[in-house]
Amino acid sequence: MTDLPVAVIGAGPQGLAAAAHLLERGLTPLVLEQGSEPAAAVAEWGHVRLFSAWPELVDKAAARLLEPTGWAAPTKGYPTGAQWREHYLAPLADALGDHVRYGATVTGVSRKGRDRLVDADRAEQPFVLHVTGADGTEERIEARAVIDASG
After folding, report:
1. For residues 57 and 88, what is the distance between their CA atoms, to the nearest angstrom?
2. Of 3-7, 115-119, 124-128, 137-141, the least confident
3. Residue 97 region, left (φ>0) first, then alpha (ψ -120 to 50), else beta?
């Protein structure tokens, strides 16, 4: 089971930061985002100015992942949601590359071969994520763990 990815549901600020932390620890993240772009929910309120300053909005592991790309963390000011997305979240998603999948709606999470009637050795089985793609295709993805950063 150790060769399976850690599934992260949601490519918003928490999901992307979680993926950066997983990479730092030598684990393989798989970020599943329902929207067609990173931080799709943030895009819906992009006109709103945040109450937190830039230094409070940048995760340290994410910054370490971004630094080799030439990215520099903004040091002052209060960005709008759109600025936060454009100058931090989108570059972070780009740095994560193929670890992020868009148009992937997670419709269920279970344990492989287990249900309410079959519970023996449940903790020894991988998770199974039921995912519907943007084109309607259904897929099952096995994962060693699941982080729900969708809400």
Report:
1. 9
2. 115-119
3. left
Residue with tokens 């897929």: 139
pTM as predicted: 0.92
Residue at 74: amino acid letter: P
Whose tokens are 């992260």? That residue is 8
Cα separation, 133 vs 136, in Å, equals 5
Length of the chain as a residue count: 151
CATH code of the domain made up of 6-148: 3.50.50.60
Q: Can you give the C-alpha Rg of the chain in angstroms?
A: 17
**Which of 70, 107, 129, 94 has the alpha carbon at shortest distance from 16?**
94
**pLDDT at 148 exceeding the cut of 70:** yes
